[in-house]
Description:
Blueprint: H1 14-20, H2 33-39, E1 51-58, E2 73-74, H3 77-93, E3 100-107, E4 110-116, E5 122-127, H4 133-139, H5 153-168, E6 176-185, E7 188-196, E8 202-203, E9 207-209, H6 216-223, H7 233-243, E10 249-260, E11 263-272, E12 277-286, E13 294-307, E14 312-322, E15 325-334, E16 342-353, E17 357-369, E18 375-387, E19 405-419, E20 428-442, E21 459-476, E22 479-491, E23 501-503, E24 517-519, E25 521-534, E26 537-551, E27 556-559, E28 562-571, E29 576-585, E30 597-605
Helix pairs in contact: 4-5
Amino acid sequence: MYRLGKILSFKNDIGLLKKWGISILIFIPWLTRGQTLDTLPKIKKQITNTTYVKLFLKPQKAQIPSKIRFKYRYKTKITAQNAIRLLINELHNQAYLNARLDSVTNVGDTLKAYIFRGEAFKWKSLRKGNLPKKIRNHVGFKEKFYKNKRFLHKSISKLQNKILAYSENNGYPYAQTRLDSINIEGHSVSAKLHYDKGPLMTLDTLRIQGAVKIKRKFLAKYLRLREGDIFSNQKVKNAERLLRQLPYVKVIKSPQTEFRAKKAFVNLFLRKRKANQINLLVGILPNEREPNTIEWTGEFDLLLQNMFGSGKNLTAKWLRPEPQSQTINLSYIHPLLFNSYLDLQTNFNLLREDTSFVNINFGGSLLYNLRNGNKLSVSFNSRSSRVLNNSIFQNITRLPDTLDVSFVSYGIGYQLSQVDDALFPTKGNLIDISMEVGQKSIQQNPELPENFYENIPLNTTQFVYKFNWQHYLPINQKSVVYWRLNAGTMVNDQLLTNELFRLGGINNLRGHNQNVFLASSFAIINLEYRILFEENSYLFFFYDQSWLQQKTINLFDEDIPFGFGMGLNFPTQAGIFNIVYALGQTKELPISFNRSKIHFGFISRF
């Protein structure tokens, strides 16, 4: 692809160049390095004694520009010579195109460099030429920006790169640009831009190299590389990063583009990946109600990804944190709804807390896929909580903080995904931010006296904020530092126990029972140091620190529980096995090996 092209072009200006004694070399400073090297004395053997440099510049009172930083003391004469050579190059870059090294003398430990700096060249004018207005507006080119400004080679290169980048992202990868009609008067330069856009290139069908079960139409829409679209080099570059966010394909190497007959053929080098999962997690916990016995908890996850080769996802989860409690979560994602850039996500959640209450949540989201792979979302959620056992209301003298309640909300969110691998990331960030606002309604229970509700507003506005940031920092090829900041808060003066966040356990605060903590506001930091063996296999040490606040109509409490321990992930032929040993502490329960937690997990991918 033609990038810098021919910066300067001379037409019938030979007499003018001779008159002023300026050659083409002044516009290509790097070609003058040979002169500088020849002028310097050659030293066959490196001398380690300190060498000083003294500069003598012409014309008189000439100085080194302030933008050039030059040291006058060096460890060896060779490094001092190199510094003088680089100084000449920097003078060229700062518009002193006639700068040259006249001579160098060696006096003891000092190099005396005699340099002709000359005058700085300036633009008299740079005209738009035949550069289209649309491109001029995009790159920010205006003729007035160059009047009486220094003739800087870097600024011309930068302008050309912007012009060519715009062209190759809008269907013209073979565009060329150069300066034409150059005129030199003294130290003033005038020229105009010349632009040749070349042939228009359009995308042809994607070429998928590798055995992957994925529909070409879906992939072309997801990557924004549909047949018939104008070729964009930036979209091809983005394709690799977008592909790395898909857990069911492995990128073998970067996409490559072939041009033929005004068509662009993009080749994708992919390999199928086992991304569907069946996860089984078993927890062994001390029975705090019956000493010297244990309790079993469990979790089962089913994840089906890329169903029918079109990126559809189905998630089902069952969780039994306690013998009489359970949670069911269902989620379905339909990507690129109706051939648009919108993803549809639906969710259903059911929580049964022993015999106390049951929570049901149903919601949906529309997520817009941005060009960089991140997502903006709008959501709708309907939550309800019902008390199952009215016997908890017996012999009470005030309104309890477990009541029938409903909450209908609307929300917005933003998701950022910039990791090197969707399944086993070792570098990058994952960020999920959301906000909900809606109407909350408390229903009166006939088992409670009406006067309990006198000072309690039954219909209020409630806000819910959530933030989740995960970061992977590679230390070297065999170790990674991982941290996560997970925070959330509910803003309402009539919060109830049965609507609070539920925290604790293997997913956020290890060393504690699953969902043992209830919080209206929380912040949890998870820190891990991972020693990598191979893909999906690593030993890790962790520390989890939290701040929890529980604020309801009857209670206010704060705690800073933490947990620490170690774990191991290793693959087998049947799947990925993991084991975690953790200890935890709260303000009421100190660290005790009798209350240590051992979590076993198994992930089967197919």
